[in-house]
Amino acid sequence: AAGTVPRRRPPRSDMGRGLTLLLLVLLAAPAWAEGGTAAAEEVQIEVLHLPETCSPKSKKGDLLNAHYDGFLASDGSKFYCSRTQNEGHPKWFVLGVGQVIKGLDIAMMNMCPGEKRKVTIPPSLAYGQQGYAQGKIPPNATLIFEIELYAVNKGPRSVEAFNQIDKDGDKKLSELEISQYLKEEFARDGKKRHPSAHDEILADIFKKNDHDGDGFISAKEYNVYQHDEL
């Protein structure tokens, strides 16, 4: 089951976080598809604070930075606090692609930097009948989150990220371009890897993204979240 905390933690470097997260997203298909309006209506949203300037509003595929606390609706007990995790740093995650529970993906749409919300999420959009023992969440639990959103940035499937990899500007990513991108990312994080890691990751990226098998990742294949027009 998806967790209330992002499964992957991008580096906290402001310069490198988008491209590093791009690699992670290229290697993983979205965990859930967009649901219908019925699911969205089940999430109750109360706006606690709305700043005078509300731009940009969050949308699917954006990279968000937020703090949030989680409570059980049954007794009000707190089961999660982002301020006590990861040395108190706000969480970075891509909205709408399953890095958090479905209810949070829905609840944080159309939210602006500086906004605070209190949201109530039913079990069907949280941990369902199974619950989440590791997170001290019982079966069939309704959850309440208090969220403070700090930043809304272009996500890793944005036009900007695509163009940084597409060196020749032909609107498609070749194996050479992705290979060069991987080399740059590996050099940036400085971690030691087996020589075969590069080829294995490159092959996996094309397996998951080159849907028509032509040896390129087209703009359409790349922009699966469709928050921008490539």
TrEMBL record:
Glycoprotein listed as a keyword: yes
Entries under InterPro entries matching the protein: EF-hand-dom_pair, EF_Hand_1_Ca_BS, EF_hand_dom, PPIase_dom_sf, PPIase_FKBP, PPIase_FKBP_dom
Enzyme class, UniProt record, top EC level: isomerase
PROSITE patterns: EF_HAND_1, EF_HAND_2, FKBP_PPIASE
Single GO term (MF): peptidyl-prolyl cis-trans isomerase activity
Protein keywords: Calcium, Endoplasmic reticulum, Glycoprotein, Isomerase, Metal-binding, Repeat, Rotamase, Signal
E.C. code: 5.2.1.8
CDD domains, alphabetized: EFh
UniProt cross-references to Pfam families, sorted A to Z: EF-hand_7 (PF13499), FKBP_C (PF00254)
GO cellular component terms, semicolon-separated: endoplasmic reticulum
UniProt superkingdom: Eukaryota
Catalytic function, reaction form: [protein]-peptidylproline (omega=180) = [protein]-peptidylproline (omega=0)
Domain EF-hand: 153-188, 197-230
Signal peptide: 1-33
Domain PPIase FKBP-type stretches: 61-153
Protein name per the record: peptidylprolyl isomerase
